[in-house]
Amino acid sequence: MVDQSIRVEESESRKSKPNSNELVFGRYFTDHMFVMDYTEGIGWHNASIIPYQDLSISPAAMIFHYGQSVFEGLKAFRTQNGDVQLFRPEKNVQRLNHSNARLVIPPIDEQFGLEAIRQLVELDKDWVPDAEGTSLYIRPFIISNEPYLGVSPSSQYKFIIIMSPVGSYYKEGINPVKIAVENKYVRAVKGGTGEAKTGGNYASSLKAQEMVEKEGYSQVLWLDGVERKYIEEVGSMNVFFKINGEVITPALNGSILPGITRDSVIQLLKHWDVPVTERRVSMEELYQAHQDGTLEEAFGSGTAAVISPIGELYWEDHHLTINEGKTGELSKKIYDTITGIQYGNIEDPFNWVVKVEKKTKVNY
Ligand SMILES: *Cc1c(COP(=O)(O)O)cnc(C)c1O
Questions:
Q1: Smallest Cα–Cα separation from 246: which of 330, 337, 339?
Q2: For the whole model, what pTM was predicted?
Q3: Over 90: is that where the pLDDT of 76 sits?
Q4: What is the maximum alpha-carbon separation in the chain?
Q5: Do domains 7-167 and 177-327 have the same CATH topology?
Q6: 117: number of Cβ within 10 Å
Q7: Which residues pair with 308 in a beta bridge?
Q8: Calpha distance 49→67 (Å, rounded)
Q9: pLDDT reading at 1 higher than 50
Protein backbone atom coordinates (compact mmCIF):
# COMPACT_ATOMS: atom_id res chain seq x y z
CA MET A 1 0.00 0.00 0.00
CA VAL A 2 1.17 3.44 -0.89
CA ASP A 3 -0.62 5.74 1.50
CA GLN A 4 -2.14 4.03 4.49
CA SER A 5 -3.75 6.85 6.39
CA ILE A 6 -7.40 7.77 5.95
CA ARG A 7 -8.08 11.36 4.97
CA VAL A 8 -11.28 12.62 6.58
CA GLU A 9 -13.45 15.30 5.05
CA GLU A 10 -16.40 15.87 7.35
CA SER A 11 -19.77 16.84 5.97
CA GLU A 12 -20.66 20.48 6.66
CA SER A 13 -24.27 19.65 7.32
CA ARG A 14 -25.94 16.64 8.88
CA LYS A 15 -28.98 14.96 7.39
CA SER A 16 -32.07 14.49 9.53
CA LYS A 17 -32.34 10.93 10.75
CA PRO A 18 -35.38 8.75 10.17
CA ASN A 19 -37.45 7.83 13.20
CA SER A 20 -36.06 4.66 14.82
CA ASN A 21 -39.47 2.97 14.67
CA GLU A 22 -40.06 3.67 11.00
CA LEU A 23 -36.86 2.23 9.59
CA VAL A 24 -36.99 -0.07 6.60
CA PHE A 25 -34.09 -2.00 5.09
CA GLY A 26 -31.53 -0.14 3.01
CA ARG A 27 -33.36 3.10 2.15
CA TYR A 28 -31.55 5.68 4.26
CA PHE A 29 -27.83 6.37 4.29
CA THR A 30 -25.61 8.02 6.85
CA ASP A 31 -23.69 11.30 6.49
CA HIS A 32 -20.39 9.78 5.36
CA MET A 33 -18.88 7.06 3.20
CA PHE A 34 -15.44 5.51 2.82
CA VAL A 35 -13.75 5.42 -0.59
CA MET A 36 -10.38 4.01 -1.68
CA ASP A 37 -8.96 3.60 -5.20
CA TYR A 38 -6.90 0.88 -6.80
CA THR A 39 -4.74 1.50 -9.82
CA GLU A 40 -2.52 -1.15 -11.37
CA GLY A 41 1.11 -0.28 -10.68
CA ILE A 42 0.20 1.87 -7.66
CA GLY A 43 -1.98 -0.43 -5.57
CA TRP A 44 -4.72 0.65 -3.16
CA HIS A 45 -4.39 4.35 -2.36
CA ASN A 46 -6.27 7.55 -1.67
CA ALA A 47 -8.29 6.21 1.28
CA SER A 48 -10.80 8.79 2.41
CA ILE A 49 -13.93 9.28 4.41
CA ILE A 50 -16.03 11.89 2.65
CA PRO A 51 -19.61 13.19 2.78
CA TYR A 52 -22.10 10.62 1.41
CA GLN A 53 -22.49 11.46 -2.27
CA ASP A 54 -23.10 10.11 -5.77
CA LEU A 55 -20.18 8.71 -7.71
CA SER A 56 -18.91 10.08 -10.96
CA ILE A 57 -18.07 7.08 -13.12
CA SER A 58 -17.53 6.41 -16.81
CA PRO A 59 -20.37 4.65 -18.63
CA ALA A 60 -17.64 2.39 -19.99
CA ALA A 61 -16.62 1.34 -16.45
CA MET A 62 -16.26 -2.44 -16.51
CA ILE A 63 -18.62 -2.99 -13.58
CA PHE A 64 -21.60 -2.00 -15.76
CA HIS A 65 -20.78 -4.52 -18.45
CA TYR A 66 -19.23 -7.60 -16.93
CA GLY A 67 -20.18 -7.34 -13.27
CA GLN A 68 -16.78 -7.71 -11.67
CA SER A 69 -17.68 -6.76 -8.12
CA VAL A 70 -17.89 -8.11 -4.57
CA PHE A 71 -19.70 -7.02 -1.43
CA GLU A 72 -20.11 -7.65 2.27
CA GLY A 73 -22.82 -7.06 4.87
CA LEU A 74 -22.42 -6.62 8.62
CA LYS A 75 -24.04 -4.66 11.41
CA ALA A 76 -23.22 -2.26 14.23
CA PHE A 77 -25.39 -2.55 17.34
CA ARG A 78 -26.28 -0.08 20.10
CA THR A 79 -26.03 -1.59 23.60
CA GLN A 80 -28.17 -0.68 26.63
CA ASN A 81 -25.47 1.65 27.97
CA GLY A 82 -25.09 3.44 24.63
CA ASP A 83 -21.93 1.74 23.36
CA VAL A 84 -21.65 0.75 19.72
CA GLN A 85 -20.33 -2.68 18.78
CA LEU A 86 -19.68 -4.80 15.71
CA PHE A 87 -20.24 -8.55 15.35
CA ARG A 88 -17.22 -10.52 14.05
CA PRO A 89 -16.21 -7.80 11.55
CA GLU A 90 -12.83 -9.44 10.87
CA LYS A 91 -14.72 -12.35 9.31
CA ASN A 92 -16.38 -10.04 6.80
CA VAL A 93 -13.06 -8.50 5.78
CA GLN A 94 -11.53 -11.98 5.36
CA ARG A 95 -14.48 -13.11 3.29
CA LEU A 96 -14.25 -9.98 1.16
CA ASN A 97 -10.73 -11.05 0.24
CA HIS A 98 -11.89 -14.60 -0.54
CA SER A 99 -14.51 -13.16 -2.87
CA ASN A 100 -11.87 -10.86 -4.33
CA ALA A 101 -9.65 -13.83 -5.14
CA ARG A 102 -12.49 -15.54 -7.04
CA LEU A 103 -13.37 -12.39 -8.99
CA VAL A 104 -9.70 -11.53 -9.73
CA ILE A 105 -9.93 -8.31 -7.71
CA PRO A 106 -6.73 -7.30 -5.87
CA PRO A 107 -6.89 -8.05 -2.12
CA ILE A 108 -7.24 -5.31 0.46
CA ASP A 109 -5.14 -5.15 3.63
CA GLU A 110 -7.49 -6.78 6.16
CA GLN A 111 -6.36 -4.73 9.17
CA PHE A 112 -6.76 -1.58 7.12
CA GLY A 113 -10.22 -2.64 5.93
CA LEU A 114 -11.29 -3.21 9.54
CA GLU A 115 -9.90 0.17 10.52
CA ALA A 116 -11.84 1.83 7.70
CA ILE A 117 -15.09 0.26 8.97
CA ARG A 118 -14.26 1.25 12.54
CA GLN A 119 -13.48 4.88 11.69
CA LEU A 120 -16.57 5.30 9.53
CA VAL A 121 -18.86 3.85 12.22
CA GLU A 122 -17.14 6.01 14.84
CA LEU A 123 -17.75 9.17 12.80
CA ASP A 124 -21.42 8.33 12.07
CA LYS A 125 -22.14 6.61 15.38
CA ASP A 126 -25.18 8.80 16.04
CA TRP A 127 -26.76 6.91 13.15
CA VAL A 128 -26.72 3.61 15.09
CA PRO A 129 -30.39 3.45 16.15
CA ASP A 130 -31.43 2.41 19.64
CA ALA A 131 -34.97 1.04 19.26
CA GLU A 132 -35.25 -2.68 19.95
CA GLY A 133 -34.01 -4.88 17.14
CA THR A 134 -32.63 -1.99 15.07
CA SER A 135 -29.03 -1.67 13.90
CA LEU A 136 -26.72 0.08 11.48
CA TYR A 137 -26.16 -2.05 8.38
CA ILE A 138 -22.67 -1.69 6.90
CA ARG A 139 -22.10 -2.42 3.21
CA PRO A 140 -18.47 -2.62 2.06
CA PHE A 141 -18.13 -3.32 -1.67
CA ILE A 142 -15.63 -3.19 -4.51
CA ILE A 143 -16.38 -2.33 -8.12
CA SER A 144 -14.22 -2.47 -11.25
CA ASN A 145 -14.08 0.96 -12.86
CA GLU A 146 -11.60 0.92 -15.69
CA PRO A 147 -13.33 2.46 -18.74
CA TYR A 148 -12.84 -0.45 -21.14
CA LEU A 149 -15.17 -2.79 -23.02
CA GLY A 150 -12.73 -5.66 -23.32
CA VAL A 151 -13.35 -8.80 -21.25
CA SER A 152 -10.45 -8.97 -18.81
CA PRO A 153 -9.82 -8.11 -15.18
CA SER A 154 -10.06 -4.36 -14.65
CA SER A 155 -6.90 -2.38 -13.90
CA GLN A 156 -8.82 0.05 -11.65
CA TYR A 157 -11.17 -0.50 -8.71
CA LYS A 158 -13.02 1.40 -6.03
CA PHE A 159 -13.51 0.05 -2.51
CA ILE A 160 -16.47 1.82 -0.92
CA ILE A 161 -18.26 1.49 2.41
CA ILE A 162 -21.76 2.91 2.90
CA MET A 163 -24.01 2.50 5.93
CA SER A 164 -27.76 2.39 6.46
CA PRO A 165 -29.81 2.36 9.68
CA VAL A 166 -32.18 -0.62 9.53
CA GLY A 167 -35.31 -1.61 11.41
CA SER A 168 -36.07 -4.76 13.31
CA TYR A 169 -36.37 -7.74 10.97
CA TYR A 170 -39.12 -9.14 13.18
CA LYS A 171 -41.54 -6.36 14.05
CA GLU A 172 -44.13 -8.80 15.38
CA GLY A 173 -41.70 -11.27 16.92
CA ILE A 174 -39.71 -14.04 15.24
CA ASN A 175 -42.01 -15.68 12.73
CA PRO A 176 -41.73 -18.82 10.53
CA VAL A 177 -41.85 -18.47 6.75
CA LYS A 178 -43.11 -20.68 3.92
CA ILE A 179 -40.47 -21.86 1.49
CA ALA A 180 -40.78 -23.46 -1.96
CA VAL A 181 -38.13 -25.91 -3.14
CA GLU A 182 -36.75 -24.71 -6.48
CA ASN A 183 -36.58 -27.42 -9.14
CA LYS A 184 -36.05 -25.42 -12.31
CA TYR A 185 -33.51 -22.69 -11.59
CA VAL A 186 -30.23 -22.99 -9.70
CA ARG A 187 -28.31 -20.35 -7.78
CA ALA A 188 -24.81 -21.68 -8.27
CA VAL A 189 -22.77 -24.70 -9.30
CA LYS A 190 -19.47 -26.06 -8.12
CA GLY A 191 -16.74 -24.23 -9.98
CA GLY A 192 -18.96 -21.17 -10.35
CA THR A 193 -19.14 -18.17 -8.03
CA GLY A 194 -21.56 -19.48 -5.39
CA GLU A 195 -18.88 -19.30 -2.72
CA ALA A 196 -18.20 -15.60 -3.40
CA LYS A 197 -20.39 -12.68 -2.36
CA THR A 198 -20.81 -11.14 -5.77
CA GLY A 199 -23.73 -9.29 -7.36
CA GLY A 200 -24.14 -11.74 -10.22
CA ASN A 201 -25.32 -14.48 -7.85
CA TYR A 202 -28.15 -12.22 -6.78
CA ALA A 203 -29.04 -11.16 -10.32
CA SER A 204 -29.40 -14.81 -11.32
CA SER A 205 -31.56 -15.63 -8.29
CA LEU A 206 -34.26 -13.02 -8.95
CA LYS A 207 -36.25 -15.05 -11.46
CA ALA A 208 -36.90 -17.97 -9.13
CA GLN A 209 -37.66 -15.60 -6.27
CA GLU A 210 -40.23 -13.77 -8.39
CA MET A 211 -41.95 -17.02 -9.37
CA VAL A 212 -42.37 -18.35 -5.82
CA GLU A 213 -43.50 -15.02 -4.42
CA LYS A 214 -46.41 -15.10 -6.84
CA GLU A 215 -47.45 -18.38 -5.26
CA GLY A 216 -47.30 -17.08 -1.72
CA TYR A 217 -43.88 -18.30 -0.64
CA SER A 218 -41.33 -15.94 0.80
CA GLN A 219 -38.12 -17.62 -0.44
CA VAL A 220 -36.80 -20.53 -2.46
CA LEU A 221 -34.85 -23.49 -1.17
CA TRP A 222 -31.99 -23.96 -3.61
CA LEU A 223 -30.90 -27.43 -4.65
CA ASP A 224 -27.51 -28.37 -6.07
CA GLY A 225 -26.98 -27.42 -9.69
CA VAL A 226 -25.89 -30.85 -10.92
CA GLU A 227 -28.26 -33.47 -9.55
CA ARG A 228 -30.99 -31.16 -8.19
CA LYS A 229 -31.09 -33.41 -5.15
CA TYR A 230 -29.03 -31.89 -2.40
CA ILE A 231 -29.99 -28.83 -0.39
CA GLU A 232 -27.73 -25.78 -0.66
CA GLU A 233 -29.24 -22.58 0.74
CA VAL A 234 -32.53 -20.86 1.43
CA GLY A 235 -32.93 -17.53 -0.39
CA SER A 236 -29.75 -15.68 0.51
CA MET A 237 -29.32 -17.53 3.79
CA ASN A 238 -27.63 -20.74 4.87
CA VAL A 239 -29.95 -23.48 6.09
CA PHE A 240 -30.17 -25.84 9.07
CA PHE A 241 -32.40 -28.81 9.89
CA LYS A 242 -32.92 -30.54 13.21
CA ILE A 243 -33.60 -34.21 12.63
CA ASN A 244 -34.05 -36.53 15.60
CA GLY A 245 -32.06 -34.28 17.93
CA GLU A 246 -29.18 -33.74 15.51
CA VAL A 247 -28.63 -30.45 13.70
CA ILE A 248 -27.57 -30.80 10.07
CA THR A 249 -26.40 -28.12 7.66
CA PRO A 250 -25.13 -28.59 4.09
CA ALA A 251 -21.31 -28.85 4.04
CA LEU A 252 -19.47 -26.03 2.29
CA ASN A 253 -18.97 -27.60 -1.11
CA GLY A 254 -17.81 -24.70 -3.26
CA SER A 255 -21.24 -23.49 -4.35
CA ILE A 256 -22.50 -22.49 -0.89
CA LEU A 257 -21.72 -19.09 0.61
CA PRO A 258 -19.80 -19.54 3.89
CA GLY A 259 -22.07 -17.50 6.15
CA ILE A 260 -20.70 -15.91 9.30
CA THR A 261 -24.04 -16.50 11.02
CA ARG A 262 -23.78 -20.15 9.88
CA ASP A 263 -20.37 -20.41 11.53
CA SER A 264 -21.67 -18.74 14.71
CA VAL A 265 -24.62 -21.17 14.90
CA ILE A 266 -22.28 -24.16 14.54
CA GLN A 267 -19.94 -22.84 17.25
CA LEU A 268 -22.86 -22.15 19.56
CA LEU A 269 -24.34 -25.64 19.11
CA LYS A 270 -20.94 -27.22 19.82
CA HIS A 271 -20.64 -25.05 22.93
CA TRP A 272 -24.03 -26.38 24.08
CA ASP A 273 -23.10 -29.99 23.23
CA VAL A 274 -25.91 -30.21 20.70
CA PRO A 275 -24.83 -32.65 17.95
CA VAL A 276 -24.19 -30.67 14.75
CA THR A 277 -23.05 -32.12 11.43
CA GLU A 278 -21.95 -30.49 8.18
CA ARG A 279 -22.72 -32.89 5.37
CA ARG A 280 -24.72 -33.40 2.22
CA VAL A 281 -28.45 -33.55 2.85
CA SER A 282 -30.93 -34.45 0.14
CA MET A 283 -34.51 -33.31 -0.24
CA GLU A 284 -35.50 -36.98 -0.30
CA GLU A 285 -33.90 -37.50 3.13
CA LEU A 286 -35.72 -34.45 4.46
CA TYR A 287 -39.01 -35.69 3.08
CA GLN A 288 -38.45 -39.11 4.69
CA ALA A 289 -37.61 -37.48 8.03
CA HIS A 290 -40.81 -35.48 7.79
CA GLN A 291 -42.82 -38.64 7.08
CA ASP A 292 -41.16 -40.37 10.05
CA GLY A 293 -41.91 -37.44 12.31
CA THR A 294 -38.22 -36.79 13.01
CA LEU A 295 -37.88 -33.47 11.15
CA GLU A 296 -38.14 -31.29 14.23
CA GLU A 297 -37.00 -27.82 13.15
CA ALA A 298 -35.69 -25.94 10.11
CA PHE A 299 -34.29 -22.45 9.83
CA GLY A 300 -32.23 -20.13 7.66
CA SER A 301 -29.28 -18.11 8.99
CA GLY A 302 -27.89 -14.77 7.83
CA THR A 303 -26.88 -11.31 9.03
CA ALA A 304 -30.21 -9.63 8.19
CA ALA A 305 -32.58 -11.95 10.08
CA VAL A 306 -30.02 -13.87 12.19
CA ILE A 307 -32.42 -16.87 12.31
CA SER A 308 -35.43 -17.31 10.05
CA PRO A 309 -37.55 -20.32 11.07
CA ILE A 310 -39.12 -22.38 8.28
CA GLY A 311 -42.73 -23.34 8.98
CA GLU A 312 -43.53 -25.01 5.68
CA LEU A 313 -41.62 -26.54 2.78
CA TYR A 314 -43.33 -27.06 -0.56
CA TRP A 315 -41.69 -29.80 -2.63
CA GLU A 316 -43.11 -31.72 -5.58
CA ASP A 317 -46.76 -31.38 -4.54
CA HIS A 318 -46.00 -32.11 -0.90
CA HIS A 319 -46.62 -29.47 1.72
CA LEU A 320 -44.34 -30.33 4.61
CA THR A 321 -45.37 -28.52 7.78
CA ILE A 322 -42.52 -28.29 10.27
CA ASN A 323 -43.07 -28.03 14.02
CA GLU A 324 -46.76 -27.21 13.38
CA GLY A 325 -45.64 -24.09 11.54
CA LYS A 326 -44.23 -22.63 14.75
CA THR A 327 -40.77 -21.42 15.71
CA GLY A 328 -38.78 -24.33 17.15
CA GLU A 329 -37.39 -24.23 20.67
CA LEU A 330 -33.77 -24.56 19.55
CA SER A 331 -34.22 -22.02 16.73
CA LYS A 332 -35.53 -19.52 19.27
CA LYS A 333 -32.72 -20.24 21.72
CA ILE A 334 -30.08 -19.68 19.01
CA TYR A 335 -31.79 -16.46 17.92
CA ASP A 336 -32.02 -15.15 21.49
CA THR A 337 -28.39 -16.01 22.21
CA ILE A 338 -26.84 -14.50 19.08
CA THR A 339 -28.93 -11.30 19.28
CA GLY A 340 -28.26 -11.18 23.04
CA ILE A 341 -24.52 -11.21 22.35
CA GLN A 342 -24.83 -8.68 19.51
CA TYR A 343 -26.68 -6.16 21.70
CA GLY A 344 -24.44 -6.81 24.67
CA ASN A 345 -27.26 -8.18 26.83
CA ILE A 346 -25.57 -11.50 27.50
CA GLU A 347 -22.01 -12.66 27.97
CA ASP A 348 -19.91 -13.22 24.84
CA PRO A 349 -17.81 -16.33 25.56
CA PHE A 350 -16.50 -16.40 21.97
CA ASN A 351 -15.14 -12.84 21.81
CA TRP A 352 -17.35 -12.16 18.80
CA VAL A 353 -18.16 -8.59 19.67
CA VAL A 354 -15.80 -5.69 18.86
CA LYS A 355 -16.46 -2.37 20.56
CA VAL A 356 -16.12 0.77 18.43
CA GLU A 357 -14.03 3.17 20.45
CA LYS A 358 -12.13 6.25 19.61
CA LYS A 359 -8.48 5.40 19.22
CA THR A 360 -6.04 8.13 20.10
CA LYS A 361 -3.36 6.88 17.78
CA VAL A 362 -3.54 4.63 14.75
CA ASN A 363 -0.39 3.21 13.31
CA TYR A 364 -0.28 1.85 9.80
C1 LIG B 1 -24.42 -13.20 2.70
C2 LIG B 1 -25.03 -14.52 2.35
C3 LIG B 1 -25.35 -15.48 3.32
C4 LIG B 1 -25.25 -15.24 4.80
O5 LIG B 1 -24.00 -14.87 5.26
P6 LIG B 1 -23.86 -14.14 6.68
O7 LIG B 1 -22.42 -13.89 6.79
O8 LIG B 1 -24.37 -15.07 7.71
O9 LIG B 1 -24.68 -12.89 6.59
C10 LIG B 1 -25.81 -16.72 2.90
N11 LIG B 1 -25.99 -16.97 1.59
C12 LIG B 1 -25.73 -16.06 0.64
C13 LIG B 1 -25.96 -16.43 -0.78
C14 LIG B 1 -25.25 -14.80 0.99
O15 LIG B 1 -25.00 -13.91 0.03
A1: 330
A2: 0.96
A3: yes
A4: 64
A5: no
A6: 25
A7: 300
A8: 25
A9: no
pLDDT digits (tens, 9 = 90+) for 17-28: 998 888 989 999
Q: Measured from the CB, is residue 259 less than 6 Å from ligand 1?
A: yes
Ligand 1 neighbourhood includes 197 CB (under 6 angstroms): yes
CA distance linking residue 115 with residue 248, whole number of Å: 36
Hey, which of 72, 138, 205, 257 would you mutate to test ligand 1's pocket, going by the most ligand atoms within 8 Å of its Cβ? 257
Provide the β-strand partners of residue 123. none
Q: For Cα atoms 266, 272, 274, give the angle at the middle one, nearest 5 degrees.
A: 70
State the distance from the centre of ligand 1 to the C-alpha of 300, rounded, in angstroms: 10
Residues 7-167, CATH architecture: 2-Layer Sandwich (3.30)
Query: Would you identify the CATH topology of the domain 177-327?
Result: D-amino Acid Aminotransferase; Chain A, domain 2 (3.20.10)
Residue 328: φ, ψ to 5°: -70, 155
Nearest of 165, 210, 203 to residue 187 by alpha carbon: 203
Q: Report CA torsion sign: 91, 307, 99, 38.
A: negative
Whether residue 262 has its Cβ less than 6 Å from ligand 1: yes
Q: What is the DSSP secondary-structure string of 134-156?
A: -EEEEEEEEEE--B--SSS--SE
Ligand 1: nearest atom to the Cα of 301: 8
Structural domain boundaries of the chain? 7-167, 177-327
